[in-house]
Amino acid sequence: MKRLIIGAIASMAFATAALADEMKMAVTTSFHNSGLAEILLPEIKKDLGLDVHLLVVGTGQAIRLGEAGDVDAILVHSKKAEEKFLAGGNGTHRREIMYNDFVLIGPKADAAEVAGAADAADALQKIAGAEAAFVSRGDDSGTHKKELSLWKAAELDAEGFGEWYRAVGAGMGAALNTAAGMDSYIMSDRASWLNFGNKGGLKLLFAGDPVLFNQYAYIPVNPEKHGHVKNGLAMLLEEWLVSDKAKELINGYQINGETLFVFNAQQ
Fold first, then answer.
1. Which of 140, 138, 26 is nearest to 80 (CA)?
2. 18 pLDDT tier (thresholds 50, 70, 90)
3. What is the set of domains in the chain, with CATH numbers?
4. Which of 29, 33, 53, 69 has the most CB atoms less than 10 A away?
């Protein structure tokens, strides 16, 4: 009986220790769809003994989860929204980790002639001028916010578009599936596109404009606002994310010989 009691106490202690080494992080669907999480999480567990549970949502929802204290940290890609989050006292600081770029995807036939566009604004003006089918995330994600800003920069108002513009209110993978099914244009982050398996008749038509730069940043939730958040673990994870080990894994992650992200954290 004594051994059973000791064993039960040891099991409880182990379970408590294991629980202390778990944290929640809200991440964007574009990050998750890239497949990079499947590379990083096992290494984080091996190096830190830390289980990072991901809540996969758009940037807008990730920020709301952080504001509510429902996660310990967020990894998102909308600098304006991130700065507003920090200004509201919801995060301790913002740490840039890696970047890639947004790309314009569309039908191989490219009726709107996007492939020949001079810049991103010209590409979107061509799509709008042709009233070619376009799928928008429509979900307040970082990608959606960026897309809306690009329409505005092109002197176009997405709210006034006709039926050719379809806002699906979904993550990057679901939006790409819709675009593939409709044979329509769509803006995607490069990583999600490269890791997307149902490309159908779609291809990458336009990239390279500096305005399509896509920075990902890590923000721990402020423990002074939410005393229950695991700031110590969030900081431990941040140290790992900016380490040489993370740099090697992020820069080395490729699909069909193409790099999906570039590490740019200041160490």
1. 140
2. very low
3. 2-99+214-263 (3.40.190.10), 100-212 (3.40.190.10)
4. 29
